[in-house]
Amino acid sequence: ALDAADGLLAAATDRQRASEVLARHSLARVGHQEYGRRLALEFGDPLPPAVVLVPSTAHYSWQKICRALGIGSDQLRYVPVDRRFRIDVEALERLLAELAASRTPVLAAVAVVGTTEESAVDPVDRMLAARQRAGREHGLAFALHADAAWGGYAISITRAADGSRRDLAAARAEAAPHAWPSPEVWRALIAVEGTDSVTIDPHKFGFVPYPAGAVLFRDLRVRELVATDAPYVFHDESPASLAAIGPYILEGSKPGAAAAAVWLSHRVLPLDGEGHGRLIGATARGALALHRRLAAGDFGPFRVVTLPEPDLNIVCFGVRHPRFAALEEANAFVAAVHARMSIAPGRPPREVDFVVTRTLLREADYGAAPLPLLELLGWSADDYRRAGGVAVLRCTVMNPFVAEPRGRTDFVEAFAAALREVFDEVLAVSPGTAA
């Protein structure tokens, strides 16, 4: 669409007049309702509402933004994930074929680079290929967005200090030998540069204080779709200046402290494998060490079962005890453990040595993806449906020294010991479990 607009302007004898006409009839100006009405008048039938395709692991903010933009959260189409909690590309392609057959426009598809719950990285490279096939076979054209709010900074491991692409073997040798990143994650991280837009939060894997977020567009012309000048602010300064971000952002104006913090962080730890990438690699190494320790067991009568090895730095695991007669009891136990190992009102943070979070893997969101976990825990698919999901504990490894014991402290073993202690304490006071 942007190329078509530029082509019309280039061919016009009166560029100013052509620019005014394009602006007057742009979607940004007339809105979706008027655009749909004009389509119906011109072609006799309106198109169905356009949809946005996201994996079922997508962040809740996608519902929020679809509502805020007037697209409607009902127009979000959730694509199933596989057993590594990555988007199922075959399911995506089937959905694209169905949408093409029903003449349903696709506004965008979203690849998540680091899911909030599991830090799973969608196969961005395969999604780019799927979009290309959808265009060739079905005539579909849509934007592919990378939601890299969590995992975007992991891309730094793919770059050398001179900006060239690193070799996977060399990156793995430094980060987590023979373990991380996997070839699939490596290809996905490299492929992010082929998407149309990327969101990334420096206050997450960038280790910058909250709040710091950014959106990047492949095509600079996209800014003009939302640009609005403030005549009382912008006088002689050209809105086209990169320094004049006000016309292009929703806030209009914003403080610079967060941006300065990001700039300073990038100067101290450059975005390459020798800088920030080394920090990311250390946290991934710590997550893998924790995953291996939890998977190894040695929790007495408690059965601890992990999700597959994390793509980034989040480790999730479920718990089972012989006294639990129903999955609901196990879920309640997980909630009680979380309550003991989290910051709460009236409890000084210094009293909590290790902090965990929890999440509920529901069938409506995850489909069959958690079934291997349930099977290893001794629960059935019927238990899964009846309980409304399976609760798991979640550990986010941000400390780069977790995998490297310092002095007499082995953080992984210390966490395992603390976890077993809390398990025993919670079981001793847990009501509703079978004797």
CATH superfamily of the largest domain: Type I PLP-dependent aspartate aminotransferase-like (Major domain)
The CATH architecture of the largest domain can be named as 3-Layer(aba) Sandwich
CATH topology of the largest domain: Aspartate Aminotransferase, domain 2
Supply the number of structural domains.
2
What's the story with the biggest beta sheet?
A: 6 strands, mixed
Strand element count: 10
Instruction: Compute the CA-based radius of gyration.
Output: 25 Å
Share of helical residues:
25-40%
Order of helices and strands: HHHEHEHEHEHHEEHHEEHEHHHEH
Structural class: alpha/beta
Alpha carbon gap, first and last residue: 67 Å
Shape: globular
How many distinct helices?
Answer: 15
The strands making up the biggest β-sheet line up spatially as 2-1-3-4-5-6
Name the beta content range.
Answer: 5-15%
Let me know the average pLDDT.
90
Can you characterise this structure?
This protein is α/β, with parallel strands linked by helices and 435 residues long. It has 2 domains: 2-268, Aspartate Aminotransferase, domain 2 (3-Layer(aba) Sandwich), CATH 3.40.640.10; 276-429, Aspartate Aminotransferase, domain 1, CATH 3.90.1150. The protein is built from 15 helices and 10 strands. It has helices at 2-11, 15-24, 27-43, 61-68, 89-101, 124-138, 168-175, 183-191, 257-268, 276-295, 327-340, 363-366, 371-377, 381-387, 411-429, and strands at 51-55, 76-79, 106-112, 143-147, 197-200, 214-217, 303-306, 314-320, 357-361, 390-396. The strands form 2 sheets. Strands 2-1-3-4-5-6 form a 6-stranded mixed sheet, sandwiched between helices. It has a 4-stranded antiparallel sheet with strand order 7-8-10-9, sandwiched between helices. β3 (106-112), α6 (124-138) and β4 form a beta-alpha-beta unit. The longest helix has 20 residues, at 276-295.
